[in-house]
Amino acid sequence: MKLRPVVSTLLTAVLMGALTVPATRADAASLQEIAGFGSNPGNLRMFRYAPPGLEAGRPVVVALHGCTQSATAYDDEPGWVALAEREGFALVLPEQQSANNSSKCFNWFEQSDTARGSGEALSIKQMVDRTLSDLGSDAGRVFVTGLSAGGAMAAVMLASYPEVFAGGAIVAGLPYRCATSLMQAFSCQNPGVDLTPKQWGDKVRAATTPTRWPKVSIWHGTADYTVAYRNLTELMEQWTDVHSADQVADASETVNGATHRTYSDGAGTAVVETWSIPGMGHGQPVDPGTGADQCGVPAPYILDVNLCAAIHIARFWGIA
Q: Which of 21, 40, 206, 265 is 20 to 30 A from 77, alpha carbon to alpha carbon?
């Protein structure tokens, strides 16, 4: 069993702004806990939601919660369950355990948990493998997203297992290998670390030899003082460089007050997008309602800003 120092509790105060654990919903019976999904070197728990009647050959979305949260606090709230039902895909929700990190943060800053073939990264990959086997899902349409520490861990998965994921989304997160220790993590979060695009890209390229690179959606609030807003730019620079794209947006638009920019590779394919939400603090954007562009339930770090991130992310991936 992995043990983390008590000082990791301090990281939560930086990552999520508080140490209050949201109450677990009593109506989360739709999530199924899966045991025996592999060697599980990261000592994580696996939860899954498969809509009734889900056919084989459908996509898989892995959704990673933030610090102090749980699988049941990151399924309905961001809108992923409703979207899975509407569009027909399986939802995998890894859950951190307090034995690994006292604040239930994924350990995105620990080298042993962020390298291919070890720790939490391998545990999450094993969850994907189990789901593909159980449900006959489409191995070419597997995606990963996460919030805060979960967003940073989503970046880990994209860098460590690029052949597994067709795309990812990093919400209020950080670049891959911005930190390789707890103390470095504080500087990465705020004020942030300024590297060149190539320096950032080299960190990803050093993780593995890819057969392809996933497309990446990046989301951040301009008033996020927990994980500094500049991390949106550093993430954009990292993933555009990985895709051999430049750092000048090929298209820009305003959607419900947010600035949306896309970056294309040499073939003209949009491989990176950024969403900048003015005035939003630390959290995932939602827009509660029943409209085609609406989703989510407001909760701690799930913020009603009249913009549903989950739907726009799924469209960028091509599964909605």
A: 40
